[in-house]
Amino acid sequence: MPPGPDRLDATDARLVQALTEDPRATVMALSQRLGLARNTVQSRLARLESGGLLAPFEARVRPEALGYRLGAYMTVQVVQRSLEEVASALAALPEVLEVTALSGAADLLVRVVAVDADDLWRLTEQVLAVRGVERTDTALALRRYVDHRVAPLLERAAGADTPATG
């Protein structure tokens, strides 16, 4: 399948893979490492950034470094046809890191952080006060066994791990 505006080709994948391995690499260093022209690397990076295919830099900051040592996942049940309004209200809360629409019994999965249990209680009360929220259920994040990653997918897209055909 040819790359589209929302899809990485093998060269893009190799470029992002190189950036993952050395986030501080200059365009010239990436160019030399990948055997691409400097202008090619620069234009591909610009396209990836402007197209939203690269996450914002803030995604690399761990909430623990800001004092938010408690992580949790809330499932939120919402009044019918209120998803957009509830999601917007949740986005206004600084402790809300992600909001994902779900299929099934819960409507939203909300990843939150808090300083401690009392702070999580306060945040839960704020979420419950959002117009359109019917119910929440909270599960504490105790330990992360696999951090967010895309390296295995980049390796596959770059051609390093192509599935066998048979």
From TrEMBL:
PROSITE patterns in the cross-refs: HTH_ASNC_2
Family annotation (InterPro entries): ArsR-like_HTH, AsnC-type_HTH_dom, Dimeric_a/b-barrel, Tscrpt_reg_AsnC-like, Tscrpt_reg_AsnC/Lrp_C, WH-like_DNA-bd_sf, WH_DNA-bd_sf
Superkingdom classification of source: Bacteria
Signal peptide (from-to): none
Pfam families attached to this UniProt entry: AsnC_trans_reg, HTH_AsnC-type
One term of GO molecular function: sequence-specific DNA binding
GO biological process, one term: response to amino acid
Domain HTH asnC-type: 8-69
UniProt KW keywords: DNA-binding, Transcription, Transcription regulation
Entry GO CC: cytosol
PANTHER family: LEUCINE-RESPONSIVE REGULATORY PROTEIN (PTHR30154), TRANSCRIPTIONAL REGULATOR AZLB (PTHR30154:SF34)
Stated name of the protein: Transcriptional regulator, AsnC family
Lineage: Bacteria, Bacillati, Actinomycetota, Actinomycetes, Geodermatophilales
